Amino acid sequence: MNPYQNRDDPADRLLRRGLKIMHLQLLAQLEQGKPLGAAAAALGIAQPAASRLLSEAERIAGCALRRPDGRGIRLTPEGGALARRAGRILGELNDAGRELSEIASGLSGEVRIGAVTGPAMDRVLPVLQAARRSMPKLRIRVEIANSEELSEALLDGQLDLALARLPAARPREPFDFVPLSPEPVALVVRAGHRLLAQSGPPPREILDQDWVLPAPGTLLHDTVQDRLARLGLPAPHVSVTTSSFLLTLALVQRSDAVAPMARAVAMRFSGAACAVLPEDLGISVAPYGLLTRAGAVLPMAARRLAEQLVRTAPDSPAPPGPDGMPGPHDGPVQTAGQAP
């Protein structure tokens, strides 16, 4: 310690008073909304021991970190602030351990990437293909979801980074965001649809068909409705709402319905099963970007993948296979979830 440093400096006061990792782990569990008993069980200790830890943390912090709430407890504003930072500190320690392992083993381990659907096709897929060759020991887990779910997983430490949008329901401060590009939307119909016989079907004729959209309030639904209104066009008749890409694709293939979807996805799945209408209504979802926890230092492998995701230009779709599905890639990748 610097001998000239003020010993009352708040920068190291908590450590000098004895704040330990176990205190941080307990607070991080409580910040997730767990009752004290469940938080104690997650740490492998008894509830009385957890109560003592919480009392110690209050003595060290010099303020109340909890208050009674019915039969349980609730974090005070001070407790919530310390608990949020505890989660970030524990996440950084976990990342530090992963980075040390990566350095020792030559970029092995796991990187956890989240993405909304369009960027998953445009950017994540080509980066995965390159990583299979340049970092063969690395495991990459990809989660596909909407931006709200991805941002939550990012803050909970379940993801290292995401290609997504800043969540509307959260303040911006917990995130670092590097804007990348907008996400254009195409209109998809089944192969052989009568609208494909015209080089540019009139918009009103397209709107005469049933449409498949996500529910009102979702980003794609509201973007489509807003763009049509700006063009002076009526809202489409929507007989089915779903956020499932697979169900949307199945409905399109088995009916005359029209479905808006990210152009990157539409182009990859166009072929024997479905086709993209030539008419461009100028629908584009708000720009996405690289989303990480504010101030987080990514482990080496995650940092390298993040740099590649930013540099990668939108990918040209692979030719579809005989079943209308995208062509093969360089190897299996663990994925989960669907997102509109």
Automatic annotation (TrEMBL):
Matches recorded under Pfam families: HTH_1, LysR_substrate
Annotated family: Belongs to the LysR transcriptional regulatory family.
Region (Disordered): 312-340
Alphabetized UniProt keyword annotations: DNA-binding, Plasmid, Transcription, Transcription regulation
Top-level lineage group: Bacteria
UniProt organism field: Limimaricola hongkongensis DSM 17492
Protein name, as recorded: HTH lysR-type domain-containing protein
A GO MF term: DNA-binding transcription factor activity
Limits of the HTH lysR-type domain: 19-76
Annotated Pro residues bias: 316-325
Matches recorded under Gene3D superfamilies: 3.40.190.290, Winged helix-like DNA-binding domain superfamily/Winged helix DNA-binding domain
GO cellular component labels: cytosol
